[in-house]
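Standup, Tuesday
Yesterday: got the pipeline producing structure tokens again.
Today: sanity-check two examples.
Blockers: none.

Example 1:
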Amino acid sequence: MSTTTALAIFFLIWWVTLFAVLPWGVRSQHEDGDFVEGTDPGAPIRARLLMKLVWTTLIAAIVFAIVAAIYEYRLVTLDGIAQFFGMR
């Protein structure tokens, strides 16, 4: 796998992971009962984005390592997938 391909795959995994991590630990103003005038009641009290970016990077690195190992050691092949689904 080339470096450019690896970076592109890591970026895609990171981006998908970010959307999975964003809702972690979010408390809205409505849940907390502390409303700021002029804001939506569903707005988060503290977004803690830096912590979420760290978690996203760690999780994405682990997932990427698994995907890279599957690719490098040819643990999953197109022929194996076709055979699994009875297409061969």
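Example 2:
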Amino acid sequence: MVASSLKDQSESLIPIEQVGIDLVPVAAIYGANASGKTNVVQALNYMCQAVASSHRNWQPDKPIPRPAFALDDSPHRPSSFEIEFVVSQVRYQYGFSLDDLKIQEEWLYAYPNGKKQRWYARVETPARKFVFGRNLLGDKNRTIEALTRTNSLYLSAAAQNNHELLLPIYNFFANDIRFSFGKGPALETSNMCSDDKQRAVLLRYLEAADLGIAGVRVEDMKLEAPLEKAMSAFISALREVTPQSEVTIPKLVQPLFQHRAIGESRIEFGQENESGGTMAYFSLLAPVLKALDRGGVLCVDELDASLHPLLALEIVRNFTEKKLNPQGAQLIFNTHDTNLLDSSLLRRDQVWFTEKDSSGSTHLYPLSDFRPRKDENLKRGYLQGRYGAIPFIDRDMLPQETSD
């Protein structure tokens, strides 16, 4: 999400002065159904989960929980992940390669003042070898190496053992990248409603969206006895599997929405009586507002799911306007909503496409590869197939006649 040399909407860019680059606040991913848009988000989510949990939660004597490429004729082929990111004005490059049994490789490089430093590199095949750079200070490096299992990441183990230099890197993956897959209940936003100040902010966004909501409150969710018993049994079993982690039964609350009725009265509805679009917007508010308040990266799968195009547009604008996004948060999302392909909203280097090749592999590429003109109608060009990433509908495959 590094900005190109384009001059469009330069006021929305996030400057990283010590690195000498600008970041774009938004990246939109387009593509046909089943082209791999969700897989892009899920791959980053898996990487974050591996860093956060591999040392603590992956079992020593079990295979690595790995979503291998399902169409590969060699399903045991390693999977590799790598990203570049900025923490405290320093650029880093981190990645790893793993199969079902072990972490085959892991590496971390830093670029302070633009100069590459190897902090550590790890190879497990055919024999274990760790190399630590002189800039990774501290006397814990070799101790943590001895504690790192072949099926867990060194970065994960280092964080659990309070490695001071690596904790900020770990926290970036564990806390600063958030995900919204939009298919679960609105628990995160509902929990925000338990706080008076946060509820007031949420209500302003709900009222501004013209959803007819004049108030919102939450109440404890009462589980039916069989469900409560099943949840208790599940938590007990989880504690046996991961005794070192703290597992508790979460407090569940449900939102109640107040609508203005005739006169001054208000009618209260539960979420089951609200539209799918209202609940999709409500569910997104918590991750969106937390990102805008704290910074970091928010990844949203299917931003436009059940949302009116104007609501999706407003969410994107929250990230592109600096007065609403003072912490420089970034939004990555996939969508089919071509109304967002507007050069007055998104720069040409903020639009990406996914397309599958003949082997079923997904390729991610930017709109800027096509060098579109500044005033080009991006929506029309995309729907006409000028940039690829659209479905090819073979009408010859369809029935030509219908029988009575």
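Quick observation on example 2: The two ends are 55 Å apart (CA to CA). Residues 222 and 252 are 8 Å apart (CA to CA).
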